[in-house]
Amino acid sequence: MQGKLLVFGQFSMIAVLLFAGGWHLPPWAWMLFALGLVVFAAAGFALGIRNFTIMPDPRTGNTLSQRGIYRMVRHPMYTSVLLCGSAVTFGAPSLLRWVALAVCVVVLVLKVRYEEGLLGQRHPEYKQRMAGTYRLVPGIW
């Protein structure tokens, strides 16, 4: 149930970020948004179809991915959400977007912690294999 609530919160905030303001973004914001889409595509490619899920609960038979972008960031799909959300919030700000971005950050941090707890239970080697790999933002966290 906790996983479903986190996904609901994430996608609700994505909807607000997308629809609670204009799309007249400056070029730098479009580039940041495009970077978010590239990160998402790279994550999907590196993760593979058998591991992909929108739920924080790992799929049965999943494997730990350390290929491609997963060598730099543990949760690049969440990073892509933050990049795209930041692009629209800073590029075409509105009060609703600022609130949604803040809530989205909180939800994604909670989702990371929840997901990593489940991965640690399923894969005892998870913590050791992921040591030195940042969660969301290289060089920060």
How is the topology of this model organized?
Layout: H1 2-19, H2 27-47, H3 76-91, H4 95-122, H5 126-130
Helix pairs in contact: 1-4, 2-3, 3-4
Q: How would a crystallographer describe the biggest sheet?
A: none
Give the end-to-end Cα distance, rounded to a whole number of Å.
26 Å
DSSP summary, beta strand count: 0
Query: What's the overall geometry?
Result: globular
Beta content:
under 5%
What structural category characterises the helix and strand content? mainly alpha
Helix content: 55-70%
Q: Give the topology string: H per helix, E per strand.
A: HHHHH
User: Radius of gyration in whole Å, from Cα?
Assistant: 15 Å
Please work out how many helical segments DSSP would assign. Answer: 5
User: Which parts are unreliable, with pLDDT below 50 for 5 consecutive residues or more?
Assistant: none
Compute the average pLDDT: 88
How many discrete structural domains?
1
Give your account of this protein's structure.
The relative contact order is 0.20. Helices cover 62% and strands 0% of the residues. It has 141 residues and is mostly helical. The chain starts with a helix and ends in an 11-residue tail after the last helix.
Q: What is this entry, summarized?
A:
This protein is mainly α and 141 residues long.
Please name the defining characteristics of this protein.
mainly alpha; 141 residues
